[in-house]
From TrEMBL:
Pathway: Lipid metabolism; Phospholipid metabolism; CDP-diacylglycerol biosynthesis; CDP-diacylglycerol from sn-glycerol 3-phosphate: step 3/3
Superkingdom of origin organism: Bacteria
Enzyme Commission no: 2.7.7.41
Homology family: Belongs to the CDS family.
Name this protein carries in UniProt: Phosphatidate cytidylyltransferase
Primary enzyme class: transferase
Locations listed in the record: Cell membrane
């Protein structure tokens, strides 16, 4: 537990530093690094991809993809995705006796999906300025509040297994605790953001009703994302996606839920704003 809390504290400090540069290309690079590490874990640790060349190109793609959201490079987004698809197709044709189609398809899906989803934070920043950082914290919180609430409540009161064949430690009580924790967390984030903007001399109105409606949906999305990542680990026989975060595992062990929360939150924001001026 001590190691887990220490790692969490250090990770939060790194995240805080990255968010100080939220409105700069440095944050794009941060998202690129996280995406690259996640893609590496999903392809290498699981052994879905055994080709070193495919692995290197996939990780490089994930690293640089978030940088393409910067204005000078936006028109290269489709071109880069097309290049990566052609590269995988060429590798399959040249080494079809060694590389099976499922491996190539998995590489394409993972390498495209992960940086695109993680880059939702960049889209939120650019589209919803100056409130992008508020929505990004909600995206992270949707996964992490549900995970932390589920962990602690499940440890204390968990009796009924939720998905014993996928994740034996997860309980129905823990899931409920995670949803409640997310609702409370979202309301707290809304309050803190209102106070921050007020301190900066700007009056805003945060819709706590929208936060209360979005929170349980995002919490469920986070739980499903966690289970999705657990299924992959079960199928591939690995305990964790890596050891870069002692006590937690790999990047994917911490960000798996965010993969599902970010798109769900983006849908909510597309229909209704949480902040008005």
């Amino acid at each position: 537990m001590k190691q887990r809390l220490t790692t969490a504290a250090i990770a939060l400090i790194v995240l805080f530093v990255a968010m100080l540069f939220f409105e700069t290309p440095v944050f794009n690079l941060f998202i690129g690094i996280v995406s690259a590490l996640a893609v590496y874990e999903l392809l290498y640790q699981t052994q879905y991809v055994t080709s070193k060349l495919v692995l290197v190109v996939s990780v490089a793609f994930a690293l640089f993809f978030p940088m393409l959201y910067l204005k000078p490079f936006k028109h290269y987004l489709i071109a880069m995705a097309a290049f990566y698809l052609v590269f995988l197709g060429a590798m399959f044709l040249m080494r079809h006796e060694k590389y099976m189609l499922p491996s190539i398809c998995t590489a394409f899906l993972v390498t495209l999906l992960v940086p695109v989803v993680f880059s939702v934070s960049i889209i939120l920043r650019d589209r919803l300025y100056p409130d992008g950082i508020f929505y990004y914290v909600l995206a992270l919180g949707g996964g992490w509040f549900a995970d932390s609430g589920g962990y602690f409540i499940g440890s204390l009161f968990g009796k009924h297994k939720m998905a014993p064949k996928i994740s034996p430690k997860k309980t129905v009580e823990g899931a409920v605790g995670g949803i409640v924790a997310t609702i409370l967390g979202y309301l707290l984030i809304g309050l803190l953001y209102t106070l921050y903007r007020s301190f900066m001399g700007e009056a805003i109105h945060v819709s706590y009703i929208m936060l209360a409606l979005a929170a349980p949906v995002c919490a469920v999305a986070g739980i499903l994302g966690d289970l999705f990542a657990s299924v992959i680990k079960r199928q591939t026989g690995i305990k964790d996606y890596g050891n870069i975060l002692p006590g937690h595992g790999g990047i994917m062990d911490r960000f798996d839920s965010v993969l599902f929360v970010s798109p769900v939150l983006y849908v909510f924001i597309s229909f209704a704003s949480f902040v008005t001026r």
